Amino acid sequence: MGEDLVWWITFSLTLLCKDIFASCPIFAAPVINITVVEGKTAKLPCSVQSLGEYQVFWADKFSTILTLDEKRVIDDERMEIYRPYTSDWNLLIRDVKVEDSGCYTCRINTIQVVKTKPVELNVLVPPRILNKNEIWKKKEILTKVGETVNITCIVSGIPTPRVKWYRHPLKNTVEGIVNVTSEIKRQGSGERESCIYTVEKPDIGMEGEILVIHKISRYCDGIYQCVASNGVPPAAEMETAVIVECTYCCTGIFIVYRTPLLIFITKYLATF
Predict the structure, then answer these.
(1) Higher model confidence: residue 112 or residue 221?
(2) Among 52, 92, 178, 225, fewest CB within 10 Å belongs to which?
(3) Which residues of 177-212 are buried (b: 16+ CB within 10 A; e: fewer)?
(4) At residue 233, what are phi and psi to the nearest 5 degrees?
(5) What is the DSSP letter of 80?
(6) Cα–Cα nearest to 82, from 72, 97, 74, 73
(7) How far is residue 161's CA from residue 257's CA, in Å, rounded to a whole number?
(8) Strand pairing class (210-214; 102-109)
C-alpha cells in the first residue's frame, strides 16, 4: 500500500512538472542590437511564446519600468508598445535622442524568476560643424604674404566624423577645384609656388579639424572648404575665404586687385 502511494505521488508530480514547463513563457526571438539615426523611430523587438497569464514589461538601462503589458507607465509620450502580432511586445521609441542609447530589457514576471531579454540601442548622429556661423555661411580671413593662417572646423557626431579639406578658386579666377596638397601649381607657368599645408592634432577633437597654411603666398588664396562625414548622411561642410592682401597680385593671365581704386587702375592700364 505504501509503495503504491509513493508511485502515485511521483507520477502526479511528474505530470504537474511537465504541465508547468509546457506553459512556461519563452522569448521567441534571439538577442539583437538595434541601430537608428537620431530623430528617427526605434523598434526594439520582443516576441514571447506561451505567455499565459504572465505579464510583459520593459525597463531601460537604469532599470526604470517603462511599460506594463500594453500600458506606458512613464511620462515620456515617445514610447509605446507595438503589437503587429499576438506574440509581439515591441517597444517603439519615437524621435530618438542620443541619451536614449543603452541596454533595454524585455521582462516576463514569472512565478519562479523574472526572465529578461536585453536589446542594445545604438543611436547614430550625422556630422555637425560646431563653429559654423549659421547666419554668414562663408567666413573671410584677411592675411598677408608670409603669414601663417589657421582654419578651424570643429565637428561632432556619432561615430566621430572625419574631416577633409578642399580648395576652390576665388571669384574671377579660372583655377579648378583641387584637393589641399603640399603645393599649388602657379597659374600660367610650369613653376610651382610654395604653399605648404599641415593638419594639426588639437587636444580636443580629431585630426583634420584645424588646417594650417604656412608662410602664405599670393597663390594660396581661395575658398577653403571642410567636409565632415561619418557615414551618416548628410555630410556637413563649411567654407572659409582666404584673401591675401597685396598691392597687386598677378597670376599670369589675370591681375586681381583687392580695392576698388586698384580695380579701376587695372582696367585703365588694360586699355593700353
Answers:
(1) 221
(2) 52
(3) eeebeeebebbeeeeeeebbbeeeeeeebeebbbbe
(4) -70, 155
(5) E
(6) 72
(7) 38
(8) unpaired
